[in-house]
Each structure stands twice: as C-alpha cells, then as structure tokens.
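Quick question, first post here. What does this chain look like in 3D?
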Amino acid sequence: MKALNGTSWPLLDIVTKTLDYVKTEALKEAGRSLPYGLQAEDVQWVLTVPAIWKDGAKGFMRKAAHRAGLIKEEGSRRLVLALEPESACVACDVHKLAKPGDPFMVLDCGGGTVDITMNTCAPSPELPRALEPERLVPRASQAAQREPFAPR
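> Answer (accepted):
Ran it through. Tokens below.
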C-alpha cells in the first residue's frame, strides 16, 4: 500500500499495526476496573469480516491478528472471524430489535458490496448473550458480485 506521501508499506504490516492499536485500547479500557488489568490471552476476540471473503483473506486477517498479539497461535480458538451480516443479526437480538418469530432484514452496505439478509428470530432457551448467535436463523443472503481485496 502506498501512503499519500509516497511511502510504501506491506498491507499485512498496516493491518497488524491497526489491530495492535485496537488490542491495546480495548485491553486498557476493559481492564480499567480489574485490579491487575486484562491481558490479550484472557480475551475471546471476535473480528468481523465481509461475508464474501474467501478463506485466503480470512487467513490473512488471522495472521495479522497473530502478529498483533491478539492470539498466541494462528489457529487459536480465542479468535473468531464472524461474518458481518451475521454479526448485525446478533446486534439486533442483543438490542431487542426483534422478538422470537419476527422476520427482519439486515442491509450491510459498505466496501463496494451490499449484503441483504432476511432473518427470523428463533426462540431459544436463555443462554449467556455471548453464546446466542444461533438464535437468528438466516433465510437468504445476496452479495454483490465484486470481490473484495484478496491478499496474495
């Protein structure tokens, strides 16, 4: 990638530095109320990615997260790559924007794509909120044909 001043940086370095900054700020903010703070290995990290990203692009994000210190091994289960439209559905549930049985549509617009997902909020037993993404059952998804940047 080339900056406006002409300096070039590998994309992996840019994404790694960005994730390192996010990690540092998140740990600082979330750890403020804990007597010994919070360490990256104490966290279940969730990064959202576009629904149409191929495995290579997801692997690139996982590698950057590892280099940024979010996880100790690239294959760590402490990092979840969540699809953006599914994450939007979970947010609708968390904020009580849909009741069990309600149909709703999520429009995820950005980055040159539009994801349209029709959903029905399914009833489920009470679970901790972090364990409930399966409560929302996708019925259909349509993504634009344009591929996002796929790292080599």
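Confidence is low (pLDDT under 50) at residues 127-152.
Residues 11-82 form one domain.
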